[in-house]
Write a structure and sequence with these properties.
The structure holds two protein chains of two kinds.
Chain A lengths: L1 H27 L8 E13 L3 E8 L7 E11 L5 E7 L4 E6 L2 E13 L5 H7 L1 E8 L2
Antiparallel strand pairs in A: 1-6, 2-5, 2-7, 3-4, 3-6
Chain B lengths: L1 H8 L7 E6 L3 E6 L5 E2 L5 E2 L6 E4 L2 E4 L4 E6 L5 E5 L3 E9 L2 E7 L4 E5 L2 E6 L3 E8 L10 H22 L14 H11 L5 H8 L3 H14 L2 E6 L2 E6 L5
Helix pairs in contact in B: 3-4, 4-5
Classes of the chains: A alpha+beta, B alpha+beta.
Chain lengths: 138, 238
């Protein structure tokens, strides 16, 4: 009786070992895409902040299939220089918070990354975007 | 002599020197034509001294086009103050997070697994930190589940092995079924090993071994007559 309990536990643990080993291998080995295409471009916008506080910066990918993505958002306080904020967004951290004071900012967004297959730059630009919205004072 | 070298360097200070700052602290200055840079503070020159011209704080390679290589402690800070550098490339790992940039780069590109920031100046400051790689084995939960489940499997296998049935050994002073068969064969008149083997239906080697044991136990008597060996059951055993 006790032997059969041990046998059942052994079979279960062997199954769990096989399952987690497969998961470990698939999560460690990065899939090789046929021909990843790199892209990079930047856009700039003027942002008027009338409410001081924390703002959330989020990337939107639309229907775009991406291998990797690196977005740098630079907030340059106008007209003076030197009061800059930099936020980095990636596929693993798609949103970040930044504290902004009242005023006018020039927001420069640098997009770079790779797609698994060729995508025209206009398609990428049409799908990729960054949204900034007010979160609160704290 | 030093004056000649200095004069040779200074008039062509406008040459577009390009700097590449690797995140590991290696800094490369490329001189496409005659030019110089100021010896950067806290930098260590790697290029052999024989390939370098130096006058005070000004430094240049002896041949153009040429390169100068330095190393510095990076540790999350990329800082370059070189008025003669027209373009600076900063190469960071993709898992780095930039917290400060000055000035704003002209382009940001992901190239060969690195983030390449291009600046149209030699006065560059970049602050960054590196986050643990998502693919790191330490952070992968399946490493731990695999370890735990394989440990449990090994322990269960050990328990099963320890509880395996052990072959039943007959104590040396007790008779088993085969011994009884041999004794019955001898009692039936089989007096040689071959006859005992025939009657008991046991292999001859087994019969030989067991008969010898029965002889040693005093149950069977071995009688030698005219060069032949006969076996009989002792009287007290009959």
């Amino acid at each position: 009786m006790r032997n059969s309990v041990i046998l059942i536990l052994l079979v279960l643990s062997l199954g769990a070992t096989a399952f987690s080993s497969v998961k470990l291998i698939t999560s460690t080995i990065t899939p090789s895409y046929p021909s990843p295409t790199a892209f990079s471009y930047n856009v700039s916008e003027t942002l008027v902040v009338d409410k001081e506080g924390y703002y959330t910066v989020v990337i939107h990918k639309g229907n775009l299939n991406l291998n990797s993505l690196y977005v740098i958002v630079v907030f340059q306080h106008l007209p003076g220089r030197g009061n800059e904020k930099t936020v980095v967004l990636t596929l693993s951290s798609e949103s970040e918070e930044v504290k902004l004071h009242r005023g006018v900012y020039e927001v420069i967004v640098y997009f770079t990354g790779t797609t698994p297959s060729y995508e025209g730059l206009s398609t990428i630009q049409g799908n990729l975007s960054v949204t900034i919205f007010y979160k609160g004072e704290n | 002599m030093a004056l000649i070298i200095a004069l040779g360097l200074i008039p062509l200070a406008s040459a577009g020197v390009r700097a590449t700052f690797f995140y590991n602290g290696t800094v490369l200055f490329y001189f496409p034509s005659r030019g110089w840079v100021e010896f950067p503070e806290n930098f260590t020159l790697i290029t052999p001294v024989s390939d370098v011209m130096r006058t005070g704080q000004l430094i240049a390679p002896t041949n153009f086009p040429g390169t100068l290589t330095f190393v510095t402690q990076s540790r999350g800070v990329v800082e370059l103050q070189e008025p003669n550098v027209t373009e600076t490339y900063v190469l960071l790992p993709l898992n780095s997070r930039i917290t400060y940039l000055n000035p704003t780069p002209t382009s940001v590109k992901e190239e060969n697994g690195y983030l390449n920031l291009t600046f149209a100046t030699g006065n560059v400051t970049v602050l960054y930190y590196v986050v643990p790689d998502q693919g790191s084995l330490v952070l992968n939960p399946y490493v731990y589940t695999t370890l735990i489940s394989s440990s449990i499997s090994a322990y269960m296998a050990y328990l099963l092995w320890r509880r395996r049935p052990t072959p039943q050994m007959t104590p040396p002073d007790q008779l088993d079924d085969r011994d009884v068969k041999i004794l019955n064969a001898i009692k039936s008149g089989a007096d040689s090993l071959s006859k005992i083997s025939e009657l008991s239906l046991l292999p001859r080697t087994t019969v030989y071994r067991r008969v010898k044991r029965l002889v040693n136990m005093g149950i069977v008597q071995e009688i030698r007559e005219r060069g032949k060996v006969k076996y009989v059951v002792r009287d007290n055993e009959k």
